[in-house]
Specification:
Elements (H helix, E strand, L loop, with lengths): L7 H11 L4 E5 L2 E4 H17 L7 E5 L4 H13 L2 E4 L6 H11 L3 E5 L3 H5 L10 E5 L7 E2 L1 H4 L15 E7 L7 E6 H15 L6 E4 L6 H12 L3 E4 L5 H11 L3 E5 L2 H12 L8 E5 L2 H10 L4 E8 L4 E7 L15 E5 L12 E6 L6 E2 L3 H7 E2 L2 E10 L5 E6 L15 H9 L4 E11 L3 E10 L7 H9 L10 E4 L13 H8 L3
Parallel strand pairs: 1-11, 3-4, 3-5, 5-6, 6-7, 10-11, 10-12, 12-13, 13-14, 23-24
Antiparallel strand pairs: 1-2, 8-9, 9-18, 14-15, 16-17, 17-20, 19-20, 20-21, 22-23
């Protein structure tokens, strides 16, 4: 499995040596072997070095999944640089913040993302060059200038504790925080998936989640660590995904609802077999999981718990072993549930989930105070609530009051950000945003609003207002208007009572 690897580039070199002509990646009909992938990575690393990229520099990428994205992860690792993947679903102002915060040396973007980023160029003094995928718009230059470099690349420069990627997560104050993950973090997380699912070079991963997301990146790295092949989808489309699973005999898949349900529906409609799948992990409903395991009797759905700050799963088990739980702690982590003063709680009692081990990130980029708050008393504090049962299975119990979080379709939405945006509307005096159950997405955003005197708004207008200012997946699906919000004895809004009164769709 290779936990002796120091960096991601070590994995690529070993795969090229041991499995040279076996498939490493397939995307949009193009196949790349492990040997070819290393060659592509080294050429790109040489091109990046020629334009001045050195260890520690950040390279921002705003792109859909593709071979070039995989090459960039490898080339950045080769040089000891840090990849800064941008969630292209964010609104322009949010993308501007991520880029300014990460202060990249280079920005690489898809054709569809280039206009918005080009408009930000004057406010990004750190950026020395812009390169475009699939066409270029000034100031972007062709990505081929980097990828087709014929110079010799410098020697591989990254170490196990060096930063490999910064993944921005939402924050309680509404501003994204960049979680800095090291090579050791990523390799440890990938190693646990290899061990749990017993992956080897015969496995084929369906990489349908975006590579700016730790779940998408984690699956890609795990399959590469095992020496297998990755089917990289630019975006998830159920029919093409079902056909690809059947044709390429995909064996492993990580998803968020409603991806698995739509895959099952489309496969049944077109007669595509999903029988090659043997491990699927993610967040989904008991009904969809039961459908999947009925359609694929040899397969198992795996439930787990993790976050960007833990490089992926820190608990993981087959769902059917303990339905409803998030699995047991994986073998490289310690996971505990603690009270307000960090005392471990006995089985059955709910407290904050805390983690320590080699998967825990290096810290929040340029946010030392937040890092110190999260990492205290020798544990990473996740801000999530849970309990252990007597057999050591973790049961997720929602977010702590300090970290209210809504997860529609696996994305992170903090109420504070949506509330702040809604308060910018002229009609809104007060608002509370909560998460409510949703059959399609698992959870949906709901806004409970109080209008200003002599002002009014419609639910549709407020939904469009939010969708025009921050990422559209953060906009409310439900909006209700009330005359007043409940308050505590001290006069502050009683959020718990709001949830009790409005916690249904």
């Amino acid at each position: 499995m290779g936990l002796h690897y120091v960096s991601y580039s070590d994995i690529l070199r070993q795969n090229a040596a041991d499995r040279g002509e076996r498939t490493a990646f397939c995307c949009a009909g193009e196949r790349v072997s492990h040997r070819e992938h290393l060659h592509r990575v080294k050429r790109l690393a040489a091109g990046l070095a020629q334009v001045g990229i050195v260890a520690g520099d950040r390279i921002a990428v705003s792109a859909r999944n593709g071979l070039e994205f995989a090459d960039l992860y490898g080339a950045a690792a080769w040089l000891g640089a840090i990849l800064l993947p941008v969630n292209w679903r964010l609104a322009p102002g949010e993308i501007a913040y991520v880029l300014a915060d990460g202060a990249p040396r280079l920005v690489i973007a898809d054709a569809e993302d280039q206009p918005g980023i080009a408009a930000l160029a004057a406010s990004l003094p750190s950026v020395a060059g812009y390169y475009g995928l699939g066409g270029t718009l000034a100031p972007f230059r062709p990505f081929a200038e980097l990828a087709e470099c014929t110079a010799e690349p410098p020697a591989a420069a990254s170490g196990s504790d060096d930063g490999a990627v910064i993944i921005h997560t939402a924050a309680v104050d509404g501003l994204p925080r960049g979680a800095l993950l090291s090579h050791a973090n990523l390799i440890a997380a990938a190693g646990q998936m290899v061990a749990s699912w017993q992956l080897d070079e015969r496995d084929v991963g369906l990489v349908a989640l975006p590579l700016f997301h730790i779940a998408g990146l984690g699956l890609l790295l795990a399959v590469q660590l095992a020496g297998g092949a990755s089917l990289v989808l630019p975006k998830f489309e159920p029919e093409s995904a079902a056909r690809l699973v059947a044709e390429a005999q995909a064996t492993v898949f990580v998803e968020f609802a409603p991806m698995l349900g739509s895959l099952l529906d489309k496969a049944a409609a077109i007669g595509a077999s999903l029988a090659s799948l043997r491990a699927v992990a993610g967040l989904d409903t008991p009904e969809t999981i039961a459908r999947f395991e009925s359609a694929c009797p040899a397969a198992r759905f795996w439930a787990g718990y993790g976050q960007s700050e833990t490089s992926g799963y820190v608990t993981l088990s087959p769902w059917r072993v303990r339905p409803g739980s998030a699995g047991r702690a994986t073998w490289l982590n310690q996971v505990a549930v603690v009270d307000e003063i960090d005392r471990a709680l006995p089985a059955g009692e709910i407290g904050e989930i805390v983690v320590r081990g080699p998967l825990v990130f290096r810290g929040y980029w340029r946010r030392d105070a937040d890092t110190a708050t999260a990492w205290r008393n020798d544990w990473h504090h996740t801000g999530d609530l849970g309990r252990f049962d007597a057999d050591g299975y973790l049961w997720y119990a929602g977010r702590s009051p300090a970290k209210e979080l809504i997860k529609p379709g696996g994305e992170n939405v903090y109420p504070a950000e949506v509330e702040r945006t809604l308060r910018e509307h002229e009609a809104i005096a007060e608002v509370v945003v909560i998460g409510v159950p949703d059959a399609q997405w698992g959870e949906a955003v709901k806004a409970i609003c109080v209008c200003r005197p002599d002002k009014s708004a419609t639910a549709a207008a407020l939904i469009d207002f939010v969708g025009g200012r921050i990422a559209r997946y953060k906009k409310p699906k439900h909006v209700v208007f009330v005359a007043a919000l409940p308050r505590t004895a001290s006069g502050v809004i009683d959020r718990a009572k709001v949830k009790d009164e409005h916690g249904r769709a």
